[in-house]
Design brief:
Length: 692
């Protein structure tokens, strides 16, 4: 009895696999086709889809001809998103696609199994911002074969608010070729409207409709036009995009869950062991089926990380060559008009409020507050602290923070209070270390992105934030340590620091102090305290420490540097700085500024500015342990090396040998490999693709 049943299961599995192979030759189970404009003045180096899950093996075509890839000499590649079990599909070629707001650029893929969910799409560029997201839709399909009912769901699983228009569907008894899924082949007028689908969708929002009397052999095609809206209206991409999705209805039946797959695998192994124990002859097909089930278990998705992390693209600074971390905040003025506020993230500015100029304060309609004096580098200045920002101002991020897949795209909590005072030209507002310390355990910079990790997220948050920023910034994933920071990151404990001042004053400069070794031509001073002040263009040292380094202020070349309240007269001295005691971390030889008038540096502060921090591709401040905060930095970023073909084949062979041994099959490994490949199992490079 066992023998008959196991043989029947094996023959049935082989038959199903063979029929599946024939069906795939006739039609793709799904297609995704896109039309987007390239509206950036820079030439785009590639275009990317981010698909939910490890689905590279499901993609069987597209992106390799001019029909589905707008680049010359088109190529399509896939990789796993760093830190997540999602798939990056990259379309590229031998050229850069120039700006053309009237030319639609076409990209598409197709494959087998259930249609993958599209999380984001973006153009890529050779300089910051490296990735420019575009608006997108995602159509999900599920089919009930007993009632011949097809459910179509339009969902926004991106972190951006999007408005969908021209949403519709059409059914066909035959498959539309992918080159017809365009405005010329299937314009919006060719679709039946899906009532209630044309509207704005916040992140996580969706609408479903059930289409009745849909035969299993039919093909369903959907279309939507997408544009950024709501709190995403300030995105760099300001045009629309069109998406066509096609599924073979029979392929939209829900896939079996992990538990069911595990159960089937156990049943298969049980039959194999029973056959062996009873010395019954076992068919070759039964053994192969058991091996396939074992291999399927090894390939189950690992799941995706989640944490309250936010990655914000840095905005263009006011002047060329400026390496300070500026972001753009959006708001509405007192008349309801949209405005952009050029805001500096300054870890060395102690305020916990949003500090704005008088002009911006007037635009926002801030009110109340207490008059006082700010004291810091470059002297003193009058200010009004604790002014209320009206809710109608709606201050938020112009480019919404990028969050982990599946997480709501909530923004970091911006201050509701403002300090109105003096800021240097080009800077309309400042977010200081008081704000960062109050809301986040971790903040820092990776290339053109700034990272925030909410309190209580720990190492998981750090790793997630760095994975997101690495994916956004680089075509090749960055190698990381077990804590999620880039490889070769160095760390040093820092000291929280605030100046003591009278009640009617506010000491601007504060935050965290790092001990730095400083060398001049005539002397060396170890562990000199520097405030980490990314908001200053220049590193500054006090007159007292300059004297200890043997510097004569009267003999130094002079100039002007930007400070808290404008420009300050300084002398320049060429000094060498070591941020870490580790000799593998490079030194920085820079012209350090010294205030010529002692009153311009009333507290005798040393500050480490963006002339040093801006040269470091990665740095962060970690306050997970508030008693011992840590500054970390990496002087270089190493890409993850691609695994060699021999390694991929070797690991794959080990997996196959395990499957063969478990199933007790006396089959040569080479024959097993050929059999599995013939039955549609992904090739070794796809099966064993490592997270990048």
């Amino acid at each position: 009895m066992v023998h008959k049943l196991s043989s029947w299961l094996g023959r049935t599995a082989v038959l199903v696999l063979c029929l599946s192979s024939i069906a795939e030759l006739q039609a793709a189970d799904w297609m995704i086709n896109e039309d987007y404009y390239q509206t950036d003045s820079r030439g785009a180096s590639d275009f990317e889809f981010l698909l939910a899950g490890d689905v590279a093996a499901r993609i069987t075509g597209g992106g390799e001809t001019s029909i589905t890839n707008a680049f010359s000499d088109p190529t399509r590649s896939t990789s796993l998103q760093p830190g997540f079990n999602n798939t990056i599909v990259r379309f590229a070629g031998s050229n850069a696609i120039p700006v053309s707001p009237t030319t639609k650029r076409h990209f598409g893929i197709f494959g087998t199994g259930q249609k993958p969910a599209v999380i984001t799409k973006a153009w890529s560029f050779p300089n910051a911002p490296f990735r420019v997201p575009v608006p997108k839709s995602n159509f999900d399909f599920s089919y009930d074969p007993l009632n011949e009912a097809l459910r179509i769901t339009l969902e926004n699983i991106s972190p951006y608010s999007v408005t969908f228009a021209n949403v519709g569907y059409t059914l066909s008894s035959s498959e539309y070729p992918i080159d017809q899924l365009t405005a010329n082949g299937l314009p919006p007028s060719a679709f039946q409207s899906l009532f209630g689908f044309d509207r704005e969708y916040l992140p996580g929002d969706f609408v479903s409709a059930i289409i009745s009397n849909v035969p299993a052999h039919a093909f369903a095609v959907t279309h939507a036009t997408a544009s950024f809206s709501g709190n995403s209206i300030g995105m760099d991409y300001q045009s629309t995009g069109d998406e066509w999705a096609q599924v073979r209805v029979a392929a939209a039946v829900a896939e079996p869950g992990s538990l069911l797959l595990a159960l089937l695998a156990l049943i298969g192994l049980g039959f194999a062991h029973s056959v062996r124990a009873n010395r019954l002859p076992m068919g070759k097909s039964t053994g192969v089926t058991a091996s396939l089930l074992c291999l399927a278990l090894a390939m189950l998705p690992a799941g995706r990380a989640a944490a309250d992390v936010f990655v914000v693209p840095l905005a263009a600074p006011p002047t060329a060559g400026d390496t300070r971390p500026f972001i753009d905040l959006k708001a509405k003025d007192t008349t309801g008009k949209d405005i952009t506020i050029k805001t500096l993230i300054d870890g060395g500015s102690a305020s916990s409020e949003l500090k704005v100029t008088a002009a911006v304060g007037g635009q926002l309609g801030v009110s109340g507050g207490t008059a006082g004096t700010e004291r810091g580098i470059n002297g003193t200045s009058p200010s009004t602290a604790g002014a209320s920002i009206p809710p109608a101002a709606g201050v938020g991020f112009s480019s919404p923070p990028v969050t982990p897949a599946g997480q709501a795209a909530a923004s970091p909590p911006l201050p509701t209070k403002a300090t109105v005072g003096t800021l240097p030209p080009g800077r309309q507002a400042t977010l200081g270390s008081g704000y960062l310390e109050a809301n986040f355990d971790f903040n820092g910079r990776l290339d053109g992105y700034y990272l925030f990790v909410a309190k209580g997220q720990g190492a998981t948050g750090v790793a997630t934030a760095n994975a997101i920023a690495s994916y956004l910034a680089f075509a090749t994933a960055v190698a990381t340590n077990p804590d999620g920071r880039p490889k070769d990151t160095k760390s040093e404990e820092v000291t929280p620091f605030r100046h003591s001042v009278p009640p009617d004053e506010e000491a601007i400069d504060g935050g965290f102090v790092l001990g730095v070794d400083v060398r001049s031509a005539s002397a060396t001073q170890a562990n000199v305290p520097f405030i980490l002040k990314s908001g200053f263009s220049n590193t500054i040292i006090s007159a007292q420490w300059a004297s200890l380094l043997g510097l004569n202020l009267g003999s130094l070349p002079t100039g002007q540097v930007e400070t808290n309240f404008g420009t300050m007269a300084v002398g320049f001295a060429q000094l060498e700085l070591d941020l870490f005691s580790d000799p593998s971390f490079p030194s920085f030889l820079i012209p350090v500024s010294i205030a010529l008038n002692p009153a311009d540096n009333p507290f005798g502060d040393n500050v480490l500015g963006s002339d040093v921090l801006g040269q470091i591709p990665y740095w962060d401040i970690d306050q997970t342990n508030p008693l011992a905060p840590v500054f970390s930095a990496a002087a270089r970023l190493s890409p993850i090396p691609e695994p060699s073909t021999a390694a991929l084949l070797g690991v794959t062979m080990v997996c196959l040998l395990i499957g063969v041994r478990k199933a007790r099959i006396n089959v040569k490994v080479a024959d097993a490999t050929f059999t599995l490949t013939a039955k549609g199992v992904p090739p070794p490079a796809a099966v064993m693709a490592a997270p990048s």
